[in-house]
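It is worth pausing here to work through a concrete case rather than discussing structure prediction in the abstract. The textbook approach is simple: state the sequence, then state the predicted structure, then interpret. We follow exactly that order.
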Amino acid sequence: MEEDRVSWFPLAARETLSPETRALFEQLDEKLGFVPNVFRAFAWREPRFAKWRAHFEDLMQPTAGLGKAEREMISVAVSMRNQCLYCLVAHGFALRALTRDPVLGDRITIDYRRAGLSERQVAMLDYAVKITLEPAACGLDDIEVLRGHGFIDEDIWDIAEVAAMFNFTNRLASATGMIPNHQYHAMAR
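Step two, the predicted structure:
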């Protein structure tokens, strides 16, 4: 069955992974009841997985100017433009959980411009989408628009870096045939 496949590439046997990765997988099994397929798929190249995960975890930490839900909004806006099945399903769940509103979370995932977000949030997502679709067209005027909505330079950098991280991850997930865990579909509904 297609949903049983994780990716088109090998998966590392859990017992061959480092103690740190095995401990992470055990924590995820306890917390979620499963290990996200992105971790299972990336772990076969364990040194790269560790670096990707450390960067990802750092980027998704909330700051005063850019909260966790806003970072997830960026993830789904970028993933929708890239048509990344894995990230849309997994981060759609995360956004539903963070907003505590499954309808809003789904609306943001599918069409953030009609989801009822603030002008500030729409400007943030417009910039993330521009980075995704036409990065060479990004200019100082885009930065000024975001500054006009109250984002400071560190926030704007984070918007760009989160968008870039998801562009990278979307492309790798799609190129490797990664399938989301079926559990995500019912979570935070």
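Step three, interpretation. The chain has a mean pLDDT of 96. The CA atoms of residues 89 and 185 lie 7 Å apart.
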